[in-house]
């Protein structure tokens, strides 16, 4: 597999979705992520409304391994079924991200867009 490069996220027209939107950009052909698995990913996150990047493992120059159970609900629901080598876009409304506005996190109340590359399932 060739080394992937940091994705670009196109501005999404229209109102923010109220449910999780999953879009496969590249379908992988490796092991499939299961609910509760540990996953190694590269990811980029932007604010749906502004398109402003708020986080990126690419900028840190290294992938991250997480237990899915410890992540936001949008990732817990949006990564299972994905296969290693795949790239998937998740649009997470606030209730599947950091909760409603005023929830104490700087991204509370925001709809978030992530592009996730699944590198490994452990």
From TrEMBL:
Gene Ontology terms, MF aspect: peptidyl-prolyl cis-trans isomerase activity
Swiss-Prot/TrEMBL catalytic activity: [protein]-peptidylproline (omega=180) = [protein]-peptidylproline (omega=0)
One Pfam family, short name: FKBP_C
EC number from the UniProt entry: 5.2.1.8
Name of the top EC class for this enzyme: isomerase
Domain PPIase FKBP-type: 36-122
Family: Belongs to the FKBP-type PPIase family.
Protein name as annotated: Peptidyl-prolyl cis-trans isomerase
UniProt organism field: Diaminobutyricimonas aerilata
High-level lineage: Bacteria, Bacillati, Actinomycetota, Actinomycetes, Micrococcales
């Amino acid at each position: 597999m060739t080394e992937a490069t940091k994705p670009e996220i196109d501005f999404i027209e229209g109102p923010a979705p109220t449910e999780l939107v999953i879009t496969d950009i590249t379908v992988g052909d490796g092991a499939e992520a299961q609910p509760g698995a540990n996953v190694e990913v590269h990811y980029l996150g932007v604010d749906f409304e502004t398109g402003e990047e708020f986080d990126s493992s690419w900028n840190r120059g290294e992938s991250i391994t997480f237990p899915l159970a410890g992540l936001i609900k949008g990732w817990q629901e949006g990564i299972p079924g994905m296969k290693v080598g795949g790239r998937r876009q998740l649009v997470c409304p606030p209730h599947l991200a950091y909760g409603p506005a005023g929830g104490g996190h700087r991204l509370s109340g925001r709809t978030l867009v992530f592009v996730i590359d699944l590198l490994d399932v452990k």
